[in-house]
Amino acid sequence: MKNFANQKVAVLGFGIEGQDLCRFLLKQKAKITVFDQKEKLPQKESLVCQQAGVDFKLGEDCLTKLQGFKFIFRSPGFRRLSPEILQAEKEGAQISSATKLFFELCLGKIIGVTGTKGKGTTATLIYEILQKDRQRVFLAGNVGQPMLGLLPRVQKGDWVVLELSSFQLQDLTQSPHLAVVLFITSEHLDYHQDKKEYVEAKANLVRFQKENDLSVLNADDLVSSSFAGLTPGKIYCFSRRKKVNGVYVLKKQIFLFKEKLGSTEQLQLLGEHNWDNVCAATLAAFLAGASKEAIKKTIFSFKGLEHRLEWVRDLKGISFYNDSFSTTPETTMAAIKSFQKPIVLIAGGSEKGSDYTQLGQEITHSTVKTLILIGQMAGKIKKAVLKAGFQGEILFQPAKTMPAIVELAFKKAPKGGVVLLSPACASFDLFLDYKDRGQQFKENVQAL
Q1: Which class is domain 310-446?
Q2: What is the pairing mode between strands 368-373 and 343-347?
Q3: Superfamily of domain 106-299
Q4: Domain 8-96 has CATH 3.40.50.720
Q5: So where are the chain's domains?
Q6: Which residues does the chain have with pLDDT short of 50?
Q7: Within 13 A of 208's CA, how many CA atoms are on the CB side?
Q8: Nearest-10 Cα torsion for 108, 113, 118, 120
Q9: Does 310-446 match 106-299 at the fold level?
Q10: pTM to 2 decimals?
Q11: What is the pLDDT of residues 201-231, one digit of tens each?
């Protein structure tokens, strides 16, 4: 392990990951400076760090003071290729991250899960299966606990399931023993230079594997399946369309290496897109040693994660679903396909560099009867659905608060219909984040 004692270390970002880094580095006796573009930070956590001797540089131009550091730990909010970070690297700083450090220090075996969407559901499902199988397992990354705080507890032979975004993978130089790659499409183009950089970051999940490592790839996705050419490890696949060497769905039956586990109709998770997540988790858990009994018990009882096609309540024959985590057109398309009933769809939000052409076509050929468009992207989505020939009702930016949006959706929904919040966009124009958006939706639905 690197010796951080008395070394000048910069921590970029003071979110959950940055706080985790500070706690770890303080134990290593490092001289820490936190850089954050926000002017105000969580009071309790920042006060504890200040009392321990941590220095803080705040504000939009904080990185102009990024000089003279031996180590720089980057949180996801800071672009790896930003001029300030590249200049610091040129001057001799070692650029790292909490994820990279965890890979270097973790004694256990890591299962890494990535993809554009479905990572959290799949990672949690793998964790639940291994727990049911009574294996020692931890869940971390973007779900579960902060990584570095786990290090003292993880022993040799334990499993650690990590949900990993492109931001966390971008400067990785080690790959997990077991890599799971779901579907990959364009996302975070407001952060990455282009789709190539985004896909390159994702590819680090398999790029540094060894011959005894394992990759679980999506046979239905061109990008995911192309990663087979990047890993020297053993390759297994999952599919919801065809028979593969792994786990697959045929005629609504789930198979694990040709052995039938049960029907997709037994799943508590809504939507065919979740078949991918179930197949991927089943295969990964099986390769990690889980019994078929533990797999079956878990996948058929698992109800999913908050804000991901989450049932909220039924009222006067209308069902309300919170899918606030859908921040891309592709995931909203998957949510729409999950229902045969008439839909009132609430969509829109802030920019992520997405193309809404296919979403417009999906909405036009779906059971969406009323489209409530909110936020900065309302105009782009409206243009896409009109171009596709949508004949339903479009309510363009009719309200800017969640209580008013929910009231309007309730009025418009027919008996036996569905009110679906599935925005296809980020949330930062009207809400703090997707969790805030989903929580406000649920609270106002319960208040009806």
Answers
A1: alpha beta
A2: parallel
A3: Mur-like, catalytic domain (3.40.1190.10)
A4: yes
A5: 8-96, 106-299, 310-446
A6: 188-189, 192
A7: 17
A8: 30
A9: no
A10: 0.81
A11: 899 999 999 999 999 999 999 999 999 999 9
Residue type, 385: V
Nearest-CA neighbor of 4 among 58, 55, 71? 71
**What does the pLDDT read at residue 144?**
76
97 closest CA partner among 30, 135, 147: 147
What pLDDT, on a 0 to 100 scale, did the predictor assign at position 194? 60
- CA neighbor of 50 nearest in space, from 82, 74, 26: 26
pLDDT given for residue 187 in this prediction: 52
| Rounded-to-integer distance, Cα 239 and Cα 216, Å | 11
The b-or-e profile of 294-314 (16+ CB within 10 A means b, else e) is bbbebbbebebbebbbbebee
Rg of the chain on CA atoms, in Å = 23
What's the confidence (pLDDT) of residue 196?
A: 83
Both tokens of residue 165? Answer: 């975004």
User: Given this model, what pLDDT does residue 261 score?
Assistant: 98
pLDDT at 78: 87
Measured CA to CA, the distance from residue 33 to residue 57 in angstroms comes to 7
Dig out the tokens for 54 from the structure: 């941590």
Contacts of 230 (CB under 8 A, 6+ apart): 203, 206, 207
C-alpha angle 96/97/99, rounded to 5°?
A: 125
